[in-house]
Amino acid sequence: MESIHLVSSPDSPEFNHLTRALTHSSVIGLDAEWKPIRTHQSTFPTVSLLQIACQLPGADNSSVKSPVFLIDLASIPLQSIYQLIRNAFVSPNILKLGFRFKQDLVYLSSTFCAHGCEPGFDRVEPFLDITSIYNNLQPKQPGRRLSKQTKSLATICQEVLGISLSKELQCSDWSQRPLTEEQMQYAAVDAYCLIHILEVFKAKSVTEGNSVESAMGLQLSQLDLGLKQIFDTQQNSNKMCGIKFGEALEMVQAIPPDFCKTVPISDEEVTALPPDQANRMDYVLSQIVRKYGDKILLSESDRKPKISRKKAKKSSGRVANTRSPTEGGEEWQGPPPWDATSGGNGCPKFLCDVMVEGLAKHLRCVGIDAAVPYSKKPESRDLIEQACKEKRVLLTRDAKLLRHDYLLKNQIYRVKSLLKNDQLVEVIETFQLEISEDQLMSRCTKCNGKFIQKPLTTEEAVEAAKGFQVIPNCLFNKNLEFWQCMDCKQLYWEGTQYRNAVQKFVDVCKLNE
């Protein structure tokens, strides 16, 4: 992949580049973003961003280029781009990839129709859902049925590509302009990973019967730089994801350092390819389309918002919580359960649900007790039970959880900020937490445990780490002190990473002011 290209005007070089890319791509990955709305509204959400990842042959056909285009539907006149997108959606020479893309298509069609682009979009063909690819990548076992539960895109990326994608920005405000760099990164990778998952499937199709890992050896020379390098830099990995090195990591190569930048397009980049290369599918891809290709068709009923017709339940004698989700829990009212007036010991304690799990680590870094749910996919009742049992304030970005604030009196707060640093400052200010430099890095970021009070010598640390953790040899002659978590036994030392982290939170929490 070359880079991200933000398309916001039909007169821009990026628009010309998009036009030529669609003309010469045999595969494109599709995704869309919109501002979340409350359920049961009479209109569909307005799509703010359409992501298209293209796969282009290089000039000598020995390499592949994969630019990602972010089409800013809030800025560009939709009529100027309508026919281009519609033609790509129905072109028999372009395989379209998506993840549960039918809903995206419904919202896209509604958005374009609202701007005079009739009849919108009613068909995408040929189409291949990533879920279908994932199911076909699973080893076939006699008598075993595939699970009917649809896995998330993040789970599929983890299992197929060996990477972990954060969905922290999924519910951010995509209608706000300008888009943040983090939003553009998130949106681009969601579309780009679809193409890499297809590459794994192509490799499996080439050598059916062999392992996917060995099959990828046939493809690496033709792939351009992939997803790995964006996760290698601490700055990018903190913003959007974590990297996990699994067996499938060999299938993904490195994105160039300038991937996350929107760059100007030079005249050379929009030079047309030879006509015989336009939208040309290779043999393997054409066979995949023939065997697995599908299509999305929208009916008239799909184009109409479904309004809930459920009747209100009869009263059972109990008083129902009739407040809206934004009432009562939107602004903190206190006091928290650790307050002395509530019988607490004065030590702040939080429970961060899966939508703000990154905030939990930031709170631990500044010495605050911050737990996470027991399970990876907790139900609302599980979160409520854990918060009550451990006397914690539940932090969330899920407005639906605020419906239960009558069960969690003064124990639930909806975080408004999107980014972890901003979320940390918001929580500190809202709950009037006292943070000092002595508290920084005083809790285990891995499990939330406390450290053994007495530091360990290098010899003691080596003994404690046997069979559990590797201590780099370069630390042996530095006369460092080591600290061990009392719960998970993780070892820490005051190296460069520690000092950088301390300085980061000194700045974020403005401890020098």
Structure description:
Residues 306-316 have a biased composition (Basic residues). Residues 4-206 form the 3'-5' exonuclease domain. This protein is of the alpha/beta class and 513 residues long. It folds into three domains: 4-138 and 151-206 and 282-297, Nucleotidyltransferase, domain 5; 331-434, Rossmann fold, CATH 3.40.50; 449-512, no CATH class. It has helices at residues 13-24, 78-90, 101-113, 130-137, 153-161, 181-206, 212-215, 228-232, 234-240, 283-292, 357-365, 380-390, 420-430, 458-465, 496-508; strands spanning 4-7, 27-34, 47-54, 56-57, 64-65, 68-72, 95-98, 123-129, 163-165, 241-243, 294-297, 349-352, 369-371, 393-396, 412-414, 482-484, 491-493. The strands form five sheets. It has a seven-stranded mixed beta sheet, with helices on both faces. The chain has a four-stranded parallel beta sheet with strand order 13-12-14-15, sandwiched between helices. A two-stranded antiparallel ribbon has the order 4-5. The model is unreliable at 209-277 and 308-329 (pLDDT under 50).
Tags for this entry?
513 residues, alpha/beta, Nucleotidyltransferase, domain 5, Rossmann fold, 3 domains, seven-stranded mixed sheet, four-stranded parallel sheet, 17 strands
